[in-house]
Write a structure and sequence with these properties.
The chain is of the alpha/beta class. It folds into two domains: about 5-95 and about 105-135, no CATH class; about 140-555, Alpha/Beta hydrolase fold, catalytic domain (Rossmann fold, 3-Layer(aba) Sandwich). The chain has helices at about 5-10, 10-40, 50-60, 65-95, 105-125, 130-135, 150-160, 160-165, 180-190, 270-280, 305-320, 335-350, 385-400, 405-420, 425-430, 440-445, 475, 490-495, 535-550; strands at about 140-145, 200-205, 225-235, 255, 280-285, 325-330, 365, 460-465, 500-505, 520-525, 530. The strands form two sheets. It has a nine-stranded mixed beta sheet with strand order 1-9-8-7-6-4-5-3-2, sandwiched between helices. A two-stranded antiparallel ribbon has the order 10-11. α10 links the parallel β4 (about 255) and β5 (about 280-285). α7 crosses α19 and α11 (about 305-320) packs across α12 (about 335-350).
Amino acid sequence: MAPFHPSIDCGCSISVALYHCIGSIVFRSIQIIKSIKVSMNRLPFISFESLMKVFWGWHTQFPTSNHETSLIAALSFIILHIMCIVWFCRRIYTSCFKSSSKQVDDDTKLSTNKTQYIISIILLLISIELPVLLTTTNEGLADLIKGTDSKLNEILQRVPLIKIGPKPPLLLRNRHIQFIPWMIQNLLHQKGGGIPYQRIAVEVSDCINKDIECLNSNLHEHQAMNDTILLDIFPPFDDDSPYSKGFNKASPVILFQPGLRCRSQDLPGNSIIRKAYEFGFRSIVVNRRGLIQLLKVPRMNIFGDVDDLEQIYNYIKRELVSNDTPFFLYGISAGTSMTVTALSKWDRRRIDEPESNPPVIVASVDVVPGYDISTVLKRERFLWPYNDLLLQGVKDHFVLQNEEVLRKYNSDAVDKMLAASSLQEVVDEGVVFAGYTNTSSYYGSINPINKLEDITTPKLVLNSADDPCCNIQNLYEISPYDMHDGQTFADMIRGTKRGMVAVARSGSHAPFLCNRNNRWLVFDALTGGYMINSWSDQVAIEYFQAALEVYGDRRYL
């Protein structure tokens, strides 16, 4: 008889047994707790909710803003899974290799099993943040802010998912745990070859000193910051490509602005590109300077450069698409800064200098912005451990690999960037490489919250109340700037014409995992398989579709 091989005969059993165990624990625990809840609510002098508030009142009052407790819950979740895996590996191994020469004492085994069950249940209750689970909801919207245009109601009617909000899966409600399946999917997408983009290199120019206004048409080669920006396009402008079937030069285009240290294959994630493809939108990822290639000149802005983006728009408009092609703008995380600033400047120019022909955008979506970029990356806002996790990577990516060209321009600034103790300090010390002499002129020019009232382009912003990176309080704080007359940023958005912000109760920093209608997975049009259901992806594309119908005449401005 062939020898028994545990990796073949027991491999599948481990995962099946593991999830069967977790499912059983979840089901039994929730049933028990709900029974206790029903029984206690029958008592005239105490309720289950009031008891929970006695022990967890500080948490249940602000269930989506307690970062530290959610970290403990996330750690418990990970430990629980590791323990279950080890436990069942041992059980499967024992069942596959029973030894007749040595038996374990039955009483010891029973005691060990009881202890393991008790520890597992305790870890499970912590990991799902039980008091919050039973006394509050993590699904739906926490807030909806909208501007003054009555057509926004028509948008909401066409895209009801905006007001419905996401419904995270039970075991993935935690803001930190939501990253795990999302990152696994990103790795699998990349291992599978990623998205087959068409890559085009576009030359851009910029002033040496952006404090002094200058026009690109007046730049001379010897005094301009010339470099190359790479565009990744899907589906390609190639009629022979199998992916271009059904697309043409008039197909709507979405310009994507990636997040901090991200790229076209990971914006973060690329499921939004796949969703856009499914609905007939062509995606063009604008990889800003220093993002995926070394700098030729010492010009770099971590948040992106509006002048560069305008040159990219003009190139696409002139060389790649038809005259009536509708353009949309999408920013995620750090990439949202440039999209907001660009629209405020372009929309203002359309009023003050119509002859300058600023870019025309039908509508825009921003996902998880931080609002005031002069403070958003400080340690008290961009919370531990994420500031520390990203800090050295940002230094390596933007500074060290471009150190030679940057030091020739300003060695002192390079030293200060490398010595920075937070992401905000890296940005502050690097403003000279963005073309500004100091932080005042830098933030005065590119801070997205400066001129929100100038934006007339329809804009949808998606935030999460449990975002561990861009604290939702950023939206509701009173602006420290005199020009805003003591308004909060939320108040300023209410005063815009076509702005809208949907704050989901859950979503973390970009995943927005959703299990509404028990649809944990959705169709992937690129591969024909499945991908994780993301509320923000679906809302963004449906919003663009609705905006094209409601505001479609904007393309002719």
